[in-house]
Amino acid sequence: LAMDDVGVNPTKEKLSVFDDDATEKHASLSESLLEFSELPSIDKAWTFESKTEDSSRSMFVISQPNLLSNKRKQALLTSHILKHSDSVSFEWAPFPVQITGVSSVVPSPSGSRLLIIRNAEADSPTHIEIWNEAGIEKEFAIPLSIHGSIFTDGWFEGISWNSDETIIAYVAEEPDQAKPTITRFGYKKECSDDKDLGNWKCQGEWEEDWGETYSGKRQPSLFVIDICSGKVSAVEGITKDLSVGQVVWAPSVEGKQQHLVFVGWPSGARKLGIKYCYNRHCALYSVEIPSFATNETVAEKVELKNLTQSISSAMFPRFSPDGKSLIFLSAKCSVDSGAHSATESLHKIEWPSDGKLDNKSFKIIDLVDVVLHPVNDSFPGLYSSKFLVKPWLSDGHTMILSSTWGSTETIISVNTLSGQVSRITPPSSSSSWLLLALDGDNIISVSSSPVDFPSIKYGIISSERKWNWIDVASPTSKCSEKVLSVLSSLDYTVLKVPIKHAFDCLSEGAKLPFEAIYVSSKLKIGNSCAPLIVIIHGGPHSVAVTSFSKSSAFLASLGYNLLIVNYRGSLGFGEEALQSLPGNVGSQDVEDVLSAVDFAIGEGLVDPSKIALLGGSHGGFLTTHLIGQAPDKFAAAAARNPVCNMSLMLGTSDIPDWCFFEAYGRNGKEMFTEAPSADHISLLHSKSPIAHISKVKTPTLFLLGAQDLRVPVSNGLQYARALKERGVETKVIVFPKDVHGIDRPQSDFESFLNIGMWFNKHCK
Questions:
Q1: Which tens digit of pLDDT belongs to each residue from 186-231?
Q2: Which domains, ranges and CATH numbers included, belong to the chain?
Q3: What is the predicted pLDDT for the residue at 2?
Q4: Chain CA centroid to CA 292, Å
Q5: Is 617 a catalytic residue?
Q6: Residue 107: is its pLDDT beyond 70?
Q7: Does residue 708 carry a catalytic annotation?
Q8: Are 499 and 595 in contact (CB under 8 A)?
């Protein structure tokens, strides 16, 4: 939906009219973009034991965008893994098998069964299927009167088999509360499904949800299903104000009731947005469930036990293989400071061998603490967004996980006895590595870089405790000759950018150089430089790593060099550097991006007359700040759902507390209010890009999601209309059904097609 005039209603379609030359350029770019957008990606992987010691089996979930259906297609791809003394080979199935309408796939602990979840649309029931090697074994339709859709989002998601594979615990939307109806005979308190009476349901009292991507979702609640009988029960004892997720089974003790351990987020009267926000208080809880085998009912009230009362955040619980320790990740730095994401820590509690939790106070043992500032590229602290279901090596105390280390994603091991952290991916590699699965004491991972398509790597630990990495040929690593040609013509490096002003008041970590990833063509014509696109990540407490990006590779294929900036405040560089940004947004982060550009110019990597900007969310905040604060520096800009006016976000965003924290710093957490004062609004406005709008000259493209609850569409529209009012060349595209990420296949495609056209128009 293009809006080239300020008066156009963004909800009504406006047909774009192109001349023949523009149409030809669009067609050419579309063809090129298709080469990249349709590349497959690996989402998940599992391994299973085989009948022989020198072999195992693996299963991968792969996905591809389908532009015609505007959805992602998923498929299962299996292989047989043959292990030799110093090598390994994968025997792949001839073809992947598409799985349609599947929300989640979860193998049982033994690998003999497969759980398939199909969340239905509209008012249809959720389907749970149990498969074995011969085919479907059980199928259950769970009516909406029991619960709604099962959460499979990676945040509230918690789907866990018990040890004997008879019961599955999971998190689903609580059943919809019955609403009164109005009929031609008047008001009825009881809900009626009788359509013949001409009745309709009342709306009832409005309920808070968890914001972005959870709009309309009901409370996440805990359920268990007996797969023998199909009986589904809501787990008793959990208070109404607690949203649950990430459930696991506690070790079973013979003769004792089984316990579930899960993460609980108290909501109180107000639910602030939780997606990507680790600063929401949470704890680990335990609850006892009745035995299905005896149809036992619990006579006494079920007690809910808070296991982590002494710490403000606990998530991703994992029991050690011997059942003696419960390991968990903590985002206490986020919760305590107010940052939406920050450096994490790892902890454990000793689990009672007799399974008795009565009146027991658990001591939290620190394993990996927060790193304030790394020295000489040493371990910068934990930045891990998820754990494997089984993250353990056979020694029972070595945990394997992915974590950000500067501008790279690495795989590390953590000794849960000593807390020792080791980097196990090659120290010389500047590529990024993503952990997929463990195969006994071996590792299956994916490695990629801005110029290398993702490929599977198999890690084998030697008798000297050194990791050797083997390239695995796989169908997922194949791409077209055109894509291979483009990638082979590119190179990249990670630049260390010194900060401009190392004031004495700064912490040591905030004085350290930050990083920027520079991608360029190997082929240079004379002394000239290709046009540059400066790519700025959002957050601000996020990070851009040296992994393959379809969109970045596409832009590089058009003849652009890329400068991807990890300004101070990014993840992966220690807590002091991260915490230096809150209170200084719109100044320190702007200065860092300008420093990175000037550094690249000084190194002879950039033509100063051909620089474009691209950023989303807080990256859009910086993009629109930069075109105002440095109005003569940039030839073009593109902003995806940008924060342009923080004062406008108060009362409209699902995370208004973010505005206070980033504007005021640590004090902002306590200052946050739903009724801001004139002084609050004035300060937020002064820190926003709109405060510099009178100086903007740069042609700017806006890409906005109409359903965005994080940065509502009004934010970008206000800024774009103000630019248009001042005669600045402006184009706005609104995607009616997209949220903050603008990641629906057609929307993502149209976004980068227009970005390519916009930059070609103004930078070439």
A1: 666 565 555 545 677 788 888 889 999 999 999 999 999 999 999 9
A2: 153-292+301-370 (2.120.10), 480-645+688-763 (3.40.50.1820)
A3: 39
A4: 36
A5: yes
A6: yes
A7: yes
A8: yes
